[in-house]
Amino acid sequence: MSFDVDALAHALAARLAPLSVARPSVALPSLPGEPSMARRESPRSDLRLFLDHTLLRPDAGHAALATHCDEAIEHGFWSVCVASRNVAFVRARVEGSGVRVCSVVGFPHGDASASAKAAEAARAVRDGADELDVVIAIGALKDGDHRAIFEDLRGVVDAAEGRAVKVILETALLDEREKVIGCALSKAAGAAFVKTSTGYAKGGATIEDIALMRSVVGDVLGVKASGGIRDAATADAMIAAGATRLGASASVAIVTGGKGTTTY
């Protein structure tokens, strides 16, 4: 790329941080391809298409994955989000339902090499992934190695072949400046979303982080809140702050008025 990535990151950080934390009201997006199979009526059916129904436990086998897929089909969630090795199984399970398949890449620490992330992304696409959630190189972000981050993310965006790429910043491990720079580099690399968390760090999504991320990316990118969203009230608060997608393992509880007990 011809532009100076370091200059871009520093200029945006200087201009945008610290930001006044605006909390825009975000309407339910108009999304094509709404899942067409019969689904259970729920008190919060308006949240269905915000939800990536997530199963990233290391012990998740085919039985748990099948149940998760069936829940997504029944409730009409936007996608099922799984590890890349499980994409082919999930693709076959949800085929024809309208539920999409989301694969994580470089999960959960983001410290795989750029070539390994690109290869994982390419394999997930071949296996049927519709969207990719890639963990940013957190250590490189801490080191200020902006070129490495950009090239890392760009490799995944290229491998995605036009599919939406969401960049997981792991906001609980970053200061405000690093969050701003992470958003700026994600946008420059061609990502479609920035995302808060893996669910494996010391904290998850916060209202303040969602508002900050929305302020940086504007209306051009989506913002995904993930980590600690276990009920409809929390989901509503994240959307009000600027989230346009939610990652949760407690999706069924969220749309049926319950409260999940999982950490993600």
Mean pLDDT: 88
Query: What class would the helix/strand composition place it in?
Result: alpha/beta
Distance between the first and last residues' Cα: 36 Å
**Element string (H = helix, E = strand):** HEHEHEHEHHEHEHEHEH
Structural summary, described in words:
- By secondary structure, the protein is an alpha/beta fold.
- The chain has one domain: TIM Barrel (Alpha-Beta Barrel).
- Helix content is 42%, strand content 14%.
- It has ten helices and eight strands.
- It has helices at residues 5-16, 62-75, 87-94, 114-127, 138-143, 146-160, 176-189, 207-217, 232-241, 251-256, and strands spanning 51-54, 79-82, 100-105, 131-135, 164-168, 193-195, 222-226, 245-248.
- An eight-stranded parallel barrel has the order 1-2-3-4-5-6-7-8, surrounded by seven helices.
- Helix 9 links the parallel strand 7 (222-226) and strand 8 (245-248).
Structural topology:
Layout: H1 5-16, E1 51-54, H2 62-75, E2 79-82, H3 87-94, E3 100-105, H4 114-127, E4 131-135, H5 138-143, H6 146-160, E5 164-168, H7 176-189, E6 193-195, H8 207-217, E7 222-226, H9 232-241, E8 245-248, H10 251-256
Parallel strand pairs: 1-2, 1-8, 2-3, 3-4, 4-5, 5-6, 6-7, 7-8
Write a compact overview of the structure shown.
This protein has 264 residues and is α/β, with parallel strands linked by helices. The protein has helices at residues 5-16, 62-75, 87-94, 114-127, 138-143, 146-160, 176-189, 207-217, 232-241, 251-256; strands spanning 51-54, 79-82, 100-105, 131-135, 164-168, 193-195, 222-226, 245-248. The protein has 10 helices and 8 strands.
